[in-house]
Amino acid sequence: MNLFEEGLEFNFAELLEIIIGKGLKIALLVIALLIITPIGKKIISKAIAKASNKEKISEGRIKTLDKLLVNVYTYTLTFIFIVMLFGVFDLDLGPLLAAAGVVGLAIGFGAQGLVSDIVTGFFLLLERQIEVDEYVTAGGFNGIVEEVGLRTTKIRSFDGTLNFVPNRDVAGVSNHSRGTMRALVDIGISYDDNIDQAMQVLQKVCDEFKDDERFVDGPDVLGVQSFGSSEVVLRILGRTENMLQWSAERDMRKRIKEVFDEAGIEIPFPHQVNISKDA
């Protein structure tokens, strides 16, 4: 074997040793990441749950903080993994970080939207304007909040669509889940029916629902709300627990229809009259 072959064999063996050594280090890093990630998430969840028991934090706030801290924890682990990965390949991080700082500064001037997202998200969380599981109108979308992040807010519409709303687009928030909600039912009767009788019948229906656990106040008949082209509109109003107003309204409408049928009170509906002329 000549010197060239010996050198080639030596270089190949050394290269193989380096590849195996670095491969093992990378594998250990990946395994450590896979082990530490779920452990850290469980610790965060337990810590938040323990703090909530002491300070009586709302369930929505707990979910909001849990998802936010888990995201921050995941980003931090990812950054540490990348730094350690560079260390495995013996790369100097100084010039890399310096270059990243210059590039980041250049990007920052053109990423005002991203900065606005983070600032707005910070104040959304600080002022507790919205929380997970609340029904809100924000950024032109209605639905249930699934996650509040520093950059985006996730809102699930009632048709199942998941909307990712940049925080800078949340110019105003309508939170429909703070305090009691209003259950409002408008019902029309014919102009030929007796209004007082109809109101008495409606009040009996309201009395049936006063013991319903969904209602915290009422419901009661307010009176005549408006006059339509073919109907007199009567209004019922009550206050319910959060997110229960729709089910209460549906049940009341069903019961009103049943009672009106028993009392002979007509709910107006469009009629079609066909007139035929004999030839």
UniProtKB/TrEMBL annotation:
Domain (Mechanosensitive ion channel MscS C-terminal): residue spans on this chain: 185-267
Start and end residues of each Mechanosensitive ion channel MscS domain: 114-178
Annotated ranges, domain Mechanosensitive ion channel transmembrane helices 2/3: 74-112
One Pfam match: MS_channel_3rd
Transmembrane segments: 12-36, 68-89, 95-126
Gene3D superfamilies per the UniProt record, alphabetical: 1.10.287.1260, 2.30.30.60, 3.30.70.100
Any one Gene Ontology molecular-function term assigned to this protein's record: mechanosensitive monoatomic ion channel activity
Membrane topology: Multi-pass membrane protein
Gene Ontology CC terms, in alphabetical order: plasma membrane
Subcellular location: Cell membrane
InterPro entries given in the database record: LSM_dom_sf, MS_channel_1st, MS_channel_C, MscS_beta-dom_sf, MscS_channel_2nd, MscS_channel_C_sf, MscS_channel_TM-2, YbiO_bact
Record's keyword terms, sorted: Cell membrane, Membrane, Transmembrane, Transmembrane helix
Protein family membership: Belongs to the MscS (TC 1.A.23) family.
Name the record gives this protein: Mechanosensitive ion channel
Source organism (scientific name): Aquibacillus halophilus
